[in-house]
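Reader question, answered in our methods column.
A reader sent in the components of a multi-part assembly and asked whether the whole thing could be modeled at once rather than chain by chain. We filled in our standard form and ran it. Here is what they sent:
COMPLEX SIZE: two components
ENTRIES:
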Amino acid sequence: MTSTETPGFEVDPALYSNLAGSQVNVELDTGDMILNLGPQHPATHGTLRLVVRLDGERVVAADPVIGYMHRGYEKLSEFRTYPQITTLINRIDWLSSFANEVPFVHGAEQLMGIEAPPRAQWIRTILTELSRIATIYLFLGEMGLQVGALTPAFWGFRDRELVLNLIESATGGRFHPNFNRIGGLKDDLPWGWIAECRTTMDKILRGCDDFEDVLVGNEIFEARTRGIGIIPGELGAAYGVSGANLRASGIDWDLRRDGKPYLAYPELDFKVWTHSDGDSFARYWVRLQETREAVRMVIQLLDGLPAGPIMAKVPRIIKVPEGEVWVETENPLGQMGYYIVSKGATGPFRVKIRSASFSNVSILPWLLRGVYVPDVITIMGSLYFILGDIDR
Amino acid sequence: MPHMTLALEIGWGTTLAIKTLLVLAIIPVGALILGYTFLLKMMSHMQSRLGPMDPGGFHGWFQLVGDGIKFLQKEDIMPAESDRRVFAMAPAIVVISTFLIFLVVPTGPRLVVKDLDVGVFYALAVSSLSVVGVLMAGWASANKFALIGALRAAAQLIAYELPLLLAVVGVVIQAGTMSLQGIVGAQVDGSIFGFSGLGNPFILTQFVGFFLFLIAAQAELTQTPFDMPVAESELVAGYMVEYTGFRFLFFFIGEFGTAFAFAALAATMYLGGWAIPGVTGGMADLLGPLVLFVKLMGVAFLMFWVRFTYPRLREDQLQAVAWKYLIPIGLLNIIVTAIIKVAV
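And here is the structure of the entire assembly that came back:
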């Protein structure tokens, strides 16, 4: 593994000697320029600050500065009861809030030794996949915006709205559903929801075809993304990169299939897409296929939705017995995990949140060395992080 | 049909005043028309949205005028570290270069401000003045993003002025003149394989040149896929990042006004300009501006279609496109045109 970046911006001499004109005498040396990308930069999806040291347009060193959005959820969790915590963790990765709730609720259920009834599990799976579609679909459009194409971004917002409408009609919240209860769900699906969901899924598939037409086949898009920001598989894994970012580097690892079985995934037939290139294009392509795969999964789930109750028998006041549990799931952005320590009270003693984006951006200093300024944006866009997921 | 003329005896002072007013009016109006039609309406429809609908009543036609009025009311902010005089001058230079192009664009047999013998050369020369304004803006803003944007604009200009010129040389060879009026005349008088009913719009013979011209014009106008100087998603707005209010409005007018001017140039050189078959004399003077406008909008549609669809190239890729492909193709086009010109 290559050494990680230090905040002191030590210049790698090997990289430096390649630059034209770097061997000129000191009087002509114009020096490097330090450029602050962010915290208020449109390409940083919020408040990530990236301090880049530039030689002309080439990045000599880059250092992400995180923490502008830290809200202290791990500490706050120690002062909340279990049902209250789902409200907080909704706001970690705010684009796929429902998927955040699932591992936490699972952890609490495992500690209490109860299991949600099958119908609740299936509906949870449907909503998780819907939030995956909503998140990644936005990425598919926004990636176009990062490389300069305006139109796909609007398509991304347009069709994501349909999915958000579905989530809203089922849960009552567009972004922060807060729908999971320990032992099941708050409500059953509303009447007519399943038919509506099927039509929306058709639209999403058509939208995926549109993205494929307008971006994947486009020479400029390929020129901008192919070979840009290559993450070698083992190095990515060593940095803790997960999700589609890792699968795009050829590592066939998906917690829905390879992890401890959870929700209805063991009963589903789905393919885990990988790509061998590991560049920005591969990450886009893998996510595009994953969206289609998620649509397939939703259709399967709708077909096989079992009947029955949506809540298991749980005591009115939830007290979790003493114990520790680690639950991890495959979230839209990657591996998301909670380590919950309970001392038998109504709230956890300690919660450790492992969020995908935090690890995904940790590779940025390594990845951004020697690229051009526009590639910085491409790479950051293709890694696809959510600031709330970096700073919990 | 009796011979029609617009025979008004007016002195040169009045003529000059009218010409000045027209040119001064045509750029903001052209910018408004392009901005409204393409930026507000066409882009909106491509992106499944309506765009402005309310201002002015009919499909929000008043929106841009309203925006302009809003810009007038804004506080004039200059960055503390900026070079104040240069900062203030830069937008004016960008806009002036746009005005200067229109001096030579003919809109009728006699409707032209000044039919210079070196019209094409002049138009291309003054159009590249705007990059001076861009450089000034980027430098005077005392902002790193603006500086990167300005330097990119300068590099881009050097790369793309050449294909633009080479594309035009084909037309000049075929027409045998550099005067824009002469080029229109050559197209009107020309014939396609002996059939002279339609004249001979140079797009038929100079289609390679037309293609090159559009690509290079796209780069001149810093429009996608060559909009690195303003690169919204990386440099935020490039050289314009520190500008607000009226100065920003100047840049906006410059951007769309230059697009208007370049579309007019392309329509004049490749699509026959103001001419339509069978209309001559005073009638052509009356219809000319309208005909040119229709052709111009067609060309502008192509430009903006590309602008709203394509991603952006990287700066080094842009240079590669210019030097490796466009310039050799342009040279080849000139050689072939010259050979055919001599042979036929």
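What stands out: Residues 188 and 199 of chain B are 5 Å apart (CA to CA). Residues 12-46 of chain B form the longest helix (35 residues).
Send us your own complexes using the same form.
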